[in-house]
Design a protein that fits this description.
Helices cover 10% and strands 41% of the residues. It is mainly beta.
Length: 675
């Protein structure tokens, strides 16, 4: 896959490889590597081969959904050092050290730094004008008037000396960057400042979510030592009958897939979407892990030109995808803001818009106290043998030239699952809200989990001679994945999923572009099907799984080569069929010299309305009957979803990564230099 990507550049923005690294850290790391592999001074010494790259990536965004111009969204300076050395006994050592510093958190601190956010207003549909956070129309005073005892319906938004202080400052409304805030959904405030400035809602969601400003500025310098991007040794051992055993051990990427942007088989390494959403090349955003590989190279047979059997053991501590911390520029699906806002609700309480149904057509902003709704716990798997990941791949080339693979993998899901109905109390009475198992059915209080997933799949590469094109196909079936589902009391379900992709690459002469050089056309069609998908019509709208049962995403790359291949214009588009969301990215790469490359471009999103994104939010699920059932409900004492909904919080799964970023239009300039 890497070779195909390097050749064709089939992605929305070629990010390149350089990263920033402190000189002292670099010198120390290289010294240690040299000491470990030092040889006898009298023996011939194979020299280190070292390449050093520097890159500046500067990006600017226009207006978001609030109508405010965002401005500078990235000013990242990166240094990357790649070092190789031959060792004794046929071993080879390969390392990549990468570090970066992003100045956007200081240069644009009212958007992404210590001055980000402010006070927010929350909607009461059909009721009073929007109310400030901490001033819900239904609050402790109102509920006290009902004559109930042990009332905990409220939170501290005014007294900094009291526990759970949650003031109306440093906040944004959930989703306000990508959709109209007055949309009838259940929105709430989410803190957006770095966690050393504002700890509200900060938690480790799997390598992100609790970072202070310096850690956001220099993301590779962390406790997982991400500054060491790769560090592994390889060796090829000869066996009988010409067979070989290839070994690779260390921190590395294992590339099983052949696709760009979206993954089917390529799921061994998690992905850092906080760098540039889905638009960077996968080789730059995969998160390397400590992995052992063994590949038995069997060679040819009567029916095969070549055969290999590969075993992959990811023995590193579990790590999910980095979805981006709320308050940063790249938060895919706006998920990091949803998590941080929900964690703040559980820890400190907060105001939720359009929640309490007091009369037909009137939904009032409602205050909740700590420990009533939100995100309670994050269950990140600790290291243990059962939490490691194991993969097996058989690949071969037939005598007819057909390349294929058969893949099997057991791993932890790199995306989180939220299990609802978790230990809360009745907001009106203060009494436990729980069934015989200690859960409260349909309650929007969650624990975050990462379930075990099993994958079976395969791939095929072939030449389509009649079309003069290369065709690649991947397909996989997984079991164990979990999805939001408001038809279930626990608000999630476990489903099997089928994913596939068909890609076609065709170099074509286009005379008006370049009569002497082919232009690359590369198209991909992704398909996903969720088995046992549940979706019904409730009293007020659809109820069940917000993820589409079947969905298709298409991508197209057109890349030309001019001026002796020193100038390369390209256009990439991706279209999400169900979300009706489109992104297009024009770009020009200019190889000024063999060492200096400049890139200019942008990415721009379009969508056809957002009504189809709205979905049930379970505000009417009624775990506290009869107080939160819609007025006039025929069964107000039973907890189940009535289908009241809006864009928040589940509409993001319908919008997808393109739709949920449709207001993140930006232009960029990148300069890359090799020393």
């Amino acid at each position: 896959m890497k070779n195909r990507q390097d050749k064709h550049g089939a992605r929305l923005h070629k990010q390149g490889n350089p990263r920033r690294l402190g000189g002292a850290a670099l010198a120390s790391a290289l010294t240690v590597c040299g000491a470990v592999h030092a040889q006898d001074a009298t023996a011939p010494v194979d020299p280190w081969k070292v390449d050093i790259y520097y890159e500046n990536d500067t990006r600017f965004r226009g207006k978001d959904a609030t109508g405010e111009t965002v401005g500078l969204s990235k000013f990242r300076n990166t240094l990357q050092v790649e070092a190789d050395k031959k060792l004794e006994g046929g071993w080879k050592f390969r390392s990549i050290l990468r570090g970066s510093f992003d100045g956007v958190y200081r240069l644009n601190d009212d958007q992404y730094g210590r001055k980000a956010g402010g006070g927010v207003l929350l909607e009461s549909q059909g009721g009073p004008p929007p109310l400030p956070h901490g001033s819900g129309a239904v609050n402790k005073t109102v509920v006290d008037g009902l004559g109930l005892v042990n009332n905990t319906f409220g939170f501290n938004s005014t007294n900094p000396g009291a526990p759970n202080y949650n003031p109306n400052e440093g906040l944004r409304l959930l989703g306000d960057r990508w959709h109209d805030s007055l949309n009838g959904g259940v929105e709430f405030a989410t803190p957006v400042r770095p966690c050393d400035t504002d700890r509200r809602g900060c938690a480790d969601f799997g390598g992100y979510g609790d970072k202070k400003r310096s850690e956001l500025e220099m993301p590779e310098f962390n406790e997982r030592w991400d500054v060491i991007r790769e560090a592994f040794v390889t060796n090829t051992v000869g066996l009988a009958d010409g067979k070989q055993l290839f070994l690779k051990l260390g921190k590395q990427q294992v590339v099983w897939g052949r696709t760009d942007l979206f993954r089917v088989l390529d799921v061994i390494n998690p992905v850092d979407y906080s760098r540039n959403n889905i638009y960077d090349e996968l080789q730059d955003i995969r998160i390397p892990m400590w992995i052992a590989q063994a590949e038995y190279r069997m060679g040819a047979s009567e029916t095969m030109q070549d055969r290999n059997l590969q075993v992959v053991w990811n023995f590193d501590k579990f790590r999910p995808n980095n979805l981006g911390q709320c308050g940063t520029a790249n938060v895919i699906l706006d998920a990091g803001c949803f998590f941080r806002g929900m964690k703040n609700l559980w820890d400190n309480g907060g105001t939720v818009s359009n929640f309490a149904n007091v009369q037909p057509g009137v939904l009032l902003a409602t205050d909740f106290g700590p420990g009533q709704i939100g995100l309670r716990n994050v269950d990140l798997p600790n290291w243990s043998l059962k939490n490691t990941q194991l993969g097996l791949k058989y690949e071969g080339i037939t005598q007819g030239g057909l390349s294929f693979s058969l893949n099997a993998l057991t791993y932890r899901s790199q995306l989180p699952s939220l299990h609802g109905g978790k230990g809360a109390q009745n907001a009106f009475t203060g009494q436990p809200c729980a069934d015989a198992n200690g859960n409260c059915p349909y309650l929007i209080a969650f624990d975050m989990h990462f379930p075990r997933v099993n994958l079976l799949g395969g791939s095929v590469d072939l030449q389509w001679e009649a079309a003069k094109a290369a065709v690649r196909v991947e397909a996989a079936v997984t079991s164990g994945e979990e999805f939001a589902n408001t038809l279930r009391p626990e608000l999630y379900s476990k489903n099997r999923v089928f994913r596939s992709v068909v890609g076609i690459d065709r170099p074509t002469f286009v005379p008006f572009i370049n009569p002497n050089r082919t232009t690359l056309f590369s198209a991909q069609l992704f398909y996903q099907h969720i088995f046992d998908h549940e979706l019904q019509q409730g009293q007020f709208g659809p109820v069940g799984m917000p993820d589409w049962k079947d969905n298709v995403i298409g991508t197209l790359l057109i890349k030309a080569f001019l001026a002796g291949d020193r100038v390369s214009p390209q256009l990439i588009t991706a279209y999400d069929v169900k979300a009706r969301a489109l992104v297009t990215s024009p770009q020009i790469d200019w190889l000024v010299t063999n060492k200096l490359k400049l890139s200019f471009g942008g990415n721009f999103k379009l969508r056809n309305g957002d009504e189809r994104w709205k979905f049930d939010d379970c505000r009417g699920c009624n775990p506290w009957g009869p107080f939160t059932a819609p007025v006039g409900d025929t069964d107000p004492m039973t907890a189940y979803s009535r289908g009241l909904g809006g864009l928040e919080p589940l509409g993001r799964f319908r919008a997808g990564p393109i739709g949920a970023a449709w207001k993140e239009n930006e232009v960029f300039f990148t300069a890359r230099y090799q020393f």
